[in-house]
Amino acid sequence: MASLRDLGLSEYEARAYRALLRTGPTTAKDLSRASEVPMGRIYDVLNSLEQHSLVRSQAASRPKKYVAVEPDAALDRLLDEKKQELQTQAEQYESVVDDLSTELDAGEPVDGQFWTAAVGAEEATDLLLERIAAAERRVVVVAGAPATGFDLGTIGERVTAELEAALDRGVEIRVLLSPATVDELPRSVGRRYTSELADMEGFEVRTIPGIDGTFNVFDEIEVCIEVPHPLSADEPFAMIDVKDIEFATSVKDQFEPRWAEAEPLTFG
Fold it and tell me: Against a cut of 0.70, is the pTM above it?
């Protein structure tokens, strides 16, 4: 059940405000009895409610009387305070992230291999988006067959958005698609490519038949490989991420001749 405490009031403040709505204009002493807020605390509580602009006082009367602000106005004020508080916190967190981004350094890739896997459509997509976001120089995207187990329209939009962000960072991106994948792409992805990506520096899309696998090469040191379900084409796939300079270089070397043979892609 919703409570005024959810909007930042203390238990005593919530009791006092609710009691004022019932009693109408009243003194602190009478409000203490009506709200069951101890007399030793009631003035502090009323002062706090006044600071929140939830209570008005009649200073000219003796003893001083208090009245509650109408609920709609009171709730709007509490909501505005919470929004401002959250905005301030968000700005503080953004500042912390900015500071840490310059302080933390992933370092140069180490020799040897490291691999990880994400199983399931959502997890695999998150891994792919994470690696695109981490790219610093070059990204190669090869999609030989439409991936199964997820909504290609939704995922295509998310991947396209992440590719656009990478281009804004100065990352060079080459995308090689099979005709089957092109046919499966939703119109929304094609429209976004035409209107937002096609003219961006460092971005190029080509198509060529005869490619079956789906993989991505990042900065020539890392490869993400889509793995279809071995027993059911309708089940979510997995994604394996391999960090290995020698392997990534080998994959890219095999990619280059196919890229040279491919035709530039245009969306009608």
Answer: no
pLDDT, tens digit (0-9, with 9 covering 90-100), for 25-41: 999 999 999 999 999 99
Ranges of CATH 1.10.10.10 domains, the chain: 4-73
Classify the C-alpha dihedral 101-103-104-107 as positive or negative: positive
Which tens digits make up the pLDDT trace of 230-240? 766 555 568 89
- Tokens describing residue 9: 């009031």
CATH of 114-264, one of 1.10.645.10, 3.30.870.10, 3.90.1150.10, 3.20.20.70: 3.30.870.10
Structure tokens at 132: 């695109």
172, β-bridge pairs? 138
Q: What percent of the chain has pLDDT over 90?
A: 51
Residues 6+ apart with CB under 8 A from 258: 176, 208, 211
Domain(s) labelled CATH 3.30.870.10 in the chain stretch across 114-264
What is the C-alpha to C-alpha distance for residues 159 and 143, in angstroms, rounded to an integer? 12
Residues of the chain with pLDDT under 50: 149-150
**4-73: in CATH 1.10.10.10:** yes
The CA-CA-CA angle for residues 210, 130, 108, to 5°, reads: 100
Q: Please identify which residue in the block is written with the tokens 């199983």.
A: 119
Q: Which helix (H) or strand (E) holds 133?
A: helix 121-134
